[in-house]
Each structure stands twice: as C-alpha cells, then as structure tokens.
Amino acid sequence: KEAETQQKLANVVILATGGTIAGAGASAANSATYQAAKVGVDKLIAGVPELANLANVRGEQVMQIASESITNENLLQLGKRVAELADSKDVDGIVITHGTDTLEETAYFLNLVEKTDKPIVVVGSMRPGTAMSADGMLNLYNAVAVASDKQSRGKGVLVTMNDEIQSGRDVSKSINIKTEAFKSAWGPMGMVVEGKSYWFRLPAKRHTMDSEFDIKTISSLPAVDIAYSYGNVSDTAYKALAQNGAKAIIHAGTGNGSVSSRVVPALQELRKNGVQIIRSSHVNQGGFVLRNAEQPDDKNDWVVAHDLNPQKARILAMVALTKTQDSKELQRIFWEY
Ligand SMILES: NC(=O)C[C@H](N)C(=O)O
Predict the structure, then answer these.
(1) Is the entire prediction scored with pTM above 0.80?
(2) pLDDT along the chain (337 residues), means of 10
(3) DSSP-H helix ranges across the chain
(4) Centroid of chain to Cα 215
(5) Which of 45, 54, 128, 192 is packed most tightly, with the most Cβ within 10 A?
(6) How far is the CA of 326 from the centre of ligand 1 (A)?
(7) 70: closest CA among 39, 40, 93, 96?
(8) Can you spell out the DSSP letters for 210-221?
C-alpha cells in the first residue's frame, strides 16, 4: 500500500542554495540577527516531515550562500542543473530554496531561460528556522505543494512566500524584516492553503517554453550594471561602470525613469561608444517607463525597461545581450518578456 501511494506522488527535487531559509541564529528571539546559509538541504527536508505526504522529495545542495553574494556564474550553474532535472523523466517538479535578497532576480532569470513546462518554484524565508514563528517551514511546504501539482505546469517560474503564489517575473522583495515581504505590482497569481493551490491569474508575458532563450546555449553572461539616480546626481557612476566594461547600464531612474540634465550628455556619449542605456524606475511599487516620455529615446537610441525594476531589467538585459546587440531588438525583448 505504501509503495502504491509513493508511486502516485509526484517526484520533486529540492535544490538548495542557502539564504535565511537555511539560516541559524543564537536564540529563538533572533529573527533578524543570524547567519544565513548554515543548514544543509537534508536537515531542511527533515525539518518538515509533512513534505512526504505531498511528494517523493529528494534534496541537492547546489551551493550554500547568502543570496546577496550570488554571481552570474552561480546563476548559470543553477540554471543548467535545473534544465538537466527538468529533462529527466522521473522529475515532475523542482523547488529552489534561496535567499530572499536576490530571489526575484534568480526567479526571473530561470523564467527566461528554462525550456520546460514542469513547475519550478523558488522559495525563501524572512526568518531563520531557529527563530520564533519561523516562516521557512510553511513556505517550503507550500513550494513543494505547488511544485507537485499538475495545475502549476506552464505558468512560468513561481515563488511561494507568505501563503501566496507569485509570478517569478513580477514579484519583488518590497519589504524587509516582515514576513509579507514579497509583492507584485500586478498582484499574486494565487494562494496555497493547507497544501492546496488556488489560482486566480496567469502571466501575460513570454516565459519558459515560449521563450527564445535557452540556458543550454548560454555559457556566460555579459557585464550589465545599475546606476542609481537621485537629486544632485552626477555622471561619475555611469562613466565608471562603462570604463569597467559594462555592455549595458541600467539607469535606476527617478519617477518615470527620468534622467538628470547633469547625466544626459554622458549617457548620450556612452551610447555612441556602444554601451546600451536602459531606463528603468526605482519607485517602490510598480515602476512603469514609457518610450519617449521624459526623454527622447528614439533620438538617443536608448531602451526603456517597461515595468521591470532595475535589478530585473539587469537580468533581462544580460540574457538578451547573449543573442543581440541591436537596440531595437533589445527594446522588442523588453516589451515581450
Ligand atoms: N531573508 C534572506 O534570505 C536574506 C538573506 N540576506 C539572503 O538573501 O540570503
């Protein structure tokens, strides 16, 4: 009988990368003071025995880092392992445990480059497992529930935090400390309650199976960096990034992705020298940058990041630049993904 139910359950692989979900503090009162990336994947799985009711779960430790330290090489390594597992007949779904600081970047990267309709769910926690009211156990339980559910197929890379199912493209860490940290300007896609998913929305943008990008053909990512804008800003950071080899600079702009008159000449010059200039907005909830609004993008040959925040714009620019150096193509990609 036990063998029978085991056969019926989905096979889910948990790829662990570190973060607070694998963190440990000195006492249960330490919810914000702790060390990330301390607990191994087997212990994480053993900590939630109820996972066995949802799926046949096995774990793999891909790396053990706090997510603020993730590199492009880490992204490629993780992306390639996800693709291998997605190709395997005996894997039905993949969960990635991840630090929350750059979780939105990794989720969006995978959403762009994984050619599979199998569920890929990225999950983290805001408190370490040693803390009172730690959120990692339930977030992980929900991630495995979503990853083992056939309904989750073909919906792009997903994120389960705080009982919600979010699109890996849209979601962003919008609050720190609190457990309701992850928000999307376009709302969550659904909810997970007691291990069952309830869906309300589908993503409209191209992803996974429908993407023109494939991790299997990407061996390196170009340098793309971000410069932050504010009152009294100068062009120093932009020039330094270009000098250091940036192929594209994401302008983390004020408001509509506006550019200070103190910075415009440098950006025009950098574009003439071949650096792509991509205007995004650093407003906190739902930036939206329109072409030729605030700045003459057609004349300057700049690109706008659409609704992507600066860190997501960086991910898309890196992936897009593996295929094209043409600014018009780049803009098309920013509209479509
Ligand atoms: N809550 C977290 O996971 C934060 C941690 N610094 C990380 O991103 O690894």
Answers:
(1) yes
(2) 72 98 96 96 98 98 98 98 98 98 99 98 98 98 98 98 98 97 97 98 98 98 98 98 98 98 98 98 93 97 98 98 98 98
(3) 2-8, 41-46, 51-54, 72-87, 103-113, 136-147, 236-243, 264-272, 297-300, 310-321, 327-336
(4) 15
(5) 128
(6) 36
(7) 96
(8) G-S--GGG----
- One-letter amino acid of 192: V
Name residue 16's beta-bridge partners.
61, 97
Query: Which class for 52: exposed (0-12), middle (13-18), buried (19 or more C-beta within 10 A)?
Result: middle
- State how beta strands 196-199 and 190-193 pair: antiparallel
Cβ-in-10-Å burial (0-12, 13-18, 19+) of 243 comes to exposed
Write the burial class of residue 33 (CB in 10 Å: 0-12 exposed, 13-18 middle, 19+ buried): exposed
Distance (angstroms) between ligand 1 centre and the Cα of 67 equals 6
Distance CA 308, CA 105 (A): 11
Pocket around ligand 1 at a 6 A CB cut-off: 19-20, 36, 66-68, 99-101, 124, 126
Catalytic pick from 17, 20, 102, 160?
A: 20
Atom of ligand 1 nearest to the CA of 181: 1
Cα 112 to Cα 327: distance, rounded to the nearest angstrom: 19
Q: Which of 88, 132, 292, 104 shows the shortest CA–CA distance to 96? A: 104
Q: Tell me, rounded to whole angstroms, the distance of Cα 43 from its chain centroid.
A: 25
